Amino acid sequence: MSSTVYKTIKDRRSIRKYQLKEVSDNILLRIFDAARWTPSAHNAQPWRIIVIKDPVMKQKLAKAMASEWERDLSDDGVAPEDRERLVKSSIEQFTQAPTLFVVCLTMEDMGKYPDERRQEAEHIMAVQSVAAAIQNMLLAAHAEGLGACWFCAPLFCPETVKEVLEAPKDIEPQALITLGYPAERPEPPPRKSLKSIVYQNYWGHRG
Question: Other C-beta atoms within 10 Å of 183: how many?
Fold first, then answer.
């Protein structure tokens, strides 16, 4: 059995510092194609990807999200000097990456139910499908020699993100992915043991 896929999974890191080198459109298309082949509920493929490479737009989006975050930090009682430091760092992270993806969700081809319980479950299925597509893109990016990082900031200010990007009304921003050639190589973060995450009582059950 080939160990390539396992090596890719284990070697991938969340990268926050990038070289200035641009990522070619051909590579981006291969990454998007990896997302396209993600399994999804009903095969609805409910992901939509907004690509941002323009420095002006990156700055506009980063500042708009940071403004929302600063308001939340203020409500949480965070000191002004700490708010300023955190907001500045956030803007730098999102503007220094050569490419940004805002990954969104659409319910267009998902199931429609008259009751709230089943419709909520349908929405969760779409969220899970989009998350799986993001993972495919992260692994594809790593296989291409790129670095990426998955941020959930758009979940806290979806309307602001949509307004800045002039996005379609029927999509829901789920994540922001930074992408580029890595300028750092972080050590692997600690992982929980298999024993702590797998319910071993079910292993080998013959029923």
Answer: 14
Q: Is 1 domain-assigned?
A: no
Query: Which range marks the domain in which residue 123 is found?
Result: 10-185
Secondary structure E strands in the chain: 47-52, 99-106, 147-151, 171-180
Closest Cα to residue 141, out of 54, 47, 23? 23
Residue 197 makes CB contacts below 8 A (sequence gap 6+) with: none
State the pLDDT at residue 2: 62
Predicted TM-score (pTM) of the model is: 0.93
In terms of Cα–Cα distance, which of 31, 14, 32, 43 is closest to 129? 43
Q: Is 194 among the domain residues?
A: no
What SS3 state is found at 69? Answer: helix
**Single-letter code of the amino acid located at 50:** I
Would you give the distance in Å from CA 129 to the centre of its chain? 12
Contacts of residue 21, Cβ cutoff 8 Å, sequence gap at least 6:
98, 180, 181
Residue 119 has a pLDDT of: 97
Does residue 165 sit in helix, strand or coil? Answer: helix
